Recover the amino acids of this structure.
């Protein structure tokens, strides 16, 4: 049968694979052809793996074996074939797949071959997922537009003059251009959710510690999480369930019990048991600034209105310290970056440039291997951690971070989920913000809070913002541009279930 | 007034070139003169933004913590690595001698101990 990639979901593909309407090899081939025709313009993929069809063949064998077992009466077919067997995906280039290059879109690791599988990759391999290739990103995940890639920017499939967002821009664009059924990204301050918003797809930043980070390149260790990007909330839920779980190899892993006690003690937590609709909180006081595009706000308000019509209660909430979030983030994150990036020394792996002596080797290797934004953040982190500034910056930021977390915990006593736009604007033009670091940093204003608090957050496409030449300077030649807008939902620690429920309502998946 | 403000910003940057050079030395990053000039400006714009935190009334004592996460540590014991894995790891080193990662001599010859 002809494969309709545009309307394909994981469950649909799974049903077709099990029924034998098409094989995993045919499905992978279809995606690879799509990538071949679109990637020159979009640059979502850095590489399509030569062994993708081979692993699709192995998935076909698994499905055939399960069918044979079902025929002989040993177990039902649906139980035997995992949902993700034969499902093609793309992986952000900072997640290790043994034997494949993992460059983090940096010259530093251009020729680095991963020596082991990340835990998320082992889990997906067990499911029989087909890895199509590695996706483009801002260098070492530092950026909000994928323009910091050493291998060229990723462009937005909705308008190639615009960015795909970042840092997981390649992963979001790959899904949006039908170049994968799902992808993995990493999110330190919004790097899954903001590109998902820009590209009109769904992205989840799970609870801190819910998904193992073993085998993902660390950026901000108290902030980083791996998560899925997909076309539907259900697809993201399926992938999240496949990659989550406690892992001995992750120093900040959580167990199923970590948040059990605290969620029982909170008043409004019985949503799931009672079958009641989750109450949605909106921090209106934070959405009024001039930094937010009116077109985004309109789409956001329309979505809330539609939820209200479906019987959801929308409640105004106040998060007194939320306006400090981005400042806290831009102290804590570079501090952690400066520590994590110290490993790139040109000695054990990665790029090496010769200097006059051993210490000069470090200077030369790091100079040649690391891009501007990475250098900027390392130096900024070195500054805020240096003696004399440590209390004023790093300790103060951590204290305010605790206040922000308390604000959220308090808000979650009266609401179940908090809604904001995912990003203050739709996708901006390539090159528009590259010379203004603070303007680029402001992209993260609504997303960093979930990383600071460790709470889970989901971006769901909720409509299109129309930009036209008459009122928007960035639309040229009388053209109109319809650009996706994402709505972000944040929930209590370990309460991804409520995110999925409201997200599915928004996308009509219930 | 406006002139004074501009003057102030130009002369008293939040980070001097000298400080920046010191940070770059600590971080083992080589900077060109051009890098330094633009970084001083970028630091100013970033630091004046995050400096708004200074007005928050908060007790800075206490440790950083994310949610209810506790550090998960393993036993401090040696773990076996297969010969194949060891080979893969060593293969990624820019320079090796046998089973060692090779680096330049660290102690100079003209230093007498």
């Amino acid at each position: 049968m002809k494969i309709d990639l545009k309307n394909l979901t994981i469950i649909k593909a799974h049903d077709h694979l099990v029924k034998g309407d098409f094989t995993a090899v045919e499905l992978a081939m279809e995606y690879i052809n799509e990538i071949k025709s679109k990637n020159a313009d979009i640059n979502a993929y850095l590489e399509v793996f030569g062994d993708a069809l081979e692993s699709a063949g192995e998935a076909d064998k698994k499905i055939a074996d399960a069918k044979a077992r079902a025929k002989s009466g040993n177990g039902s077919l649906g139980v035997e074939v995992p949902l993700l067997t034969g499902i093609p995906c793309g992986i952000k280039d900072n997640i290790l797949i043994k034997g494949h290059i993992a460059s983090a879109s940096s010259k530093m690791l251009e020729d680095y071959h991963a020596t082991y599988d990340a835990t998320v990759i082992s889990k997906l391999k067990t499911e029989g997922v087909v890895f199509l290739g590695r996706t483009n990103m801002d260098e070492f995940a530092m950026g909000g537009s994928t323009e910091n890639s050493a291998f060229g920017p990723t462009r937005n499939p909705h308008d190639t003059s615009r960015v795909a967002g970042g840092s997981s821009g390649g992963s979001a664009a790959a899904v949006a251009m039908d170049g994968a059924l799902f992808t993995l990204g990493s999110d330190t301050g919004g790097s899954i959710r903001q590109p998902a918003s820009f590209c009109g797809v769904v992205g989840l930043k799970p609870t801190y510690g819910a998904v193992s980070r073993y085998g993902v390149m660390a950026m901000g260790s108290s902030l980083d999480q791996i998560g899925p990007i997909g076309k539907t909330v259900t697809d993201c839920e399926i992938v999240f369930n496949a990659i989550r779980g406690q892992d001995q190899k992750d120093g900040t892993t959580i167990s199923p019990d970590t948040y059990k006690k605290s969620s029982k003690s909170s008043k409004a937590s019985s949503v799931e048991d009672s079958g009641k609709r989750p109450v949605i909180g909106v921090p209106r006081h934070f959405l009024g600034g001039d930094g937010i595009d009116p077109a985004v706000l309109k789409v956001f308000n329309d979505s809330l209105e539609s939820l209200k019509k479906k019987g959801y209660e929308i409640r105004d909430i106040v998060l007194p310290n939320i306006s400090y979030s981005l400042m806290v983030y831009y102290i804590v994150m570079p501090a952690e970056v400066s520590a994590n990036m110290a490993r790139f020394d040109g000695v054990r792996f990665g790029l090496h440039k010769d200097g006059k002596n051993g210490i000069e080797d470090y200077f030369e290797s790091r100079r040649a291997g690391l891009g501007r934004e990475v250098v900027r953040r390392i130096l900024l982190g070195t500054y805020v951690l240096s003696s004399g500034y440590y209390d004023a910056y790093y300790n103060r930021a951590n204290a305010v971070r605790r206040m922000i977390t308390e604000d959220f915990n308090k808000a979650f006593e009266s609401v179940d989920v908090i809604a904001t736009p995912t990003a203050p604007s739709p996708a901006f033009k390539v090159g528009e913000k590259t010379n203004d670091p603070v303007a680029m940093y402001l992209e993260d204003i609504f997303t960093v809070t979930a990383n600071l608090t460790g709470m889970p957050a989901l971006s769901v496409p909720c409509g299109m913002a129309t930009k036209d030449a008459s009122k928007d300077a960035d639309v040229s030649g009388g053209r109109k541009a319809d650009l996706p807008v994402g709505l972000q939902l944040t929930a209590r620690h370990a309460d991804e279930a409520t995110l999925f429920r409201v997200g599915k309502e928004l996308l009509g998946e219930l | 007034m406006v002139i004074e403000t501009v003057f102030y910003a130009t002369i008293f940057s939040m980070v001097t070139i000298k400080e920046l050079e010191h940070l770059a030395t600590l971080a083992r990053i080589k900077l060109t003169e051009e890098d330094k000039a633009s970084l001083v400006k970028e630091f100013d714009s970033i630091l004046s933004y995050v400096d708004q935190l200074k007005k928050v009334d908060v007790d800075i004592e206490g440790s950083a913590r994310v949610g209810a996460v506790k550090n998960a540590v393993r036993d401090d014991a040696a773990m076996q690595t297969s010969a194949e894995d060891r080979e893969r790891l060593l293969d990624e080193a820019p320079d090796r001698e046998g089973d060692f990662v090779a680096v330049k001599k660290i102690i100079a010859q003209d230093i007498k101990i």
